[in-house]
Amino acid sequence: DAGVTQSPTHLIKTRGQQVTLRCSPKSGHDTVSWYQQALGQGPQFIFQYYEEEERQRGNFPDRFSGHQFPNYSSELNVNALLLGDSALYLCASSLRGQGHGYTFGSGTRLTVV
Amino acid sequence: GEDVEQSLFLSVREGDSSVINCTYTDSSSTYLYWYKQEPGAGLQLLTYIFSNMDMKQDQRLTVLLNKKDKHLSLRIADTQTGDSAIYFCAERESNYQLIWGAGTKLIIKP
To answer: For residue B58, which residues of chain A lie inside 8 Å, CB to CB?
Structure first.
């Protein structure tokens, strides 16, 4: 049973560019959450998708947007990249209503130069 | 906003027990979690505890929850070199968002 799959694993972008990160949830999960983890810090919640809609959002600007597809996979888009967007981006999947089943992918390491 | 605090480092000798502590502020948290992160890797769920429990044991891991003091601890018995990692405490808010501590780096001395 595959866990959460994220792609790409590493990415280097230039300031001002746009990036799309992808996530396939664990089989049987219907909810996808995205987190940003800066070096030496804990993850920060970006947003959560369920039934193809953004349900919750953390304290991130509108440059961060996302999408969930009918097969529950998800994308995270970041526009007008800033140096401060350099971080590990983690995707977590879960089954709505269950509190013990957050499964994380290995993340995408984004470097903005 | 809500906050989760952890000490940044813990050093223990191989074979001893490790106790990692965490405090949180949201009294309405329903689930509390311990995750492990090894270098360059994602987050691995170690264990979780529901807020109406005081203790949970899972093999070498023991979680203690003091809801009155909003204090959570993770005890790892017989600590091994493979336990070297960063350990994160997280609480789940009513909107399903997870709030995380900054992580405790566990260092194992031979």
So the answer is: none
Kindly state the average pLDDT of the residues B50-71.
94
CB atoms within 10 A of CB A26: 21
The tokens describing A11, both together, are 């990415």
In this structure, what token pair is assigned to residue A55? 């349900």
CB contact under 8 A, A99 and B48: yes
Give chain A's mean pLDDT.
94
Question: For residue B26, what pLDDT is reported?
Answer: 83
Judging contacts by C-beta atoms under 8 Å, the chain B residues touching residue A107 are: 42
Q: Could you tell me which of A103, A57, A55, A64 has the C-alpha nearest to residue A87?
A: A64
pLDDT grade for A32, boundaries at 50, 70 and 90? very high
Record: contact B41-A58, CB cut-off 8 A: no
pLDDT of B1 reads 66
- Whether residue B96 and residue A41 make contact (CB cut-off 8 A), yes or no, is no
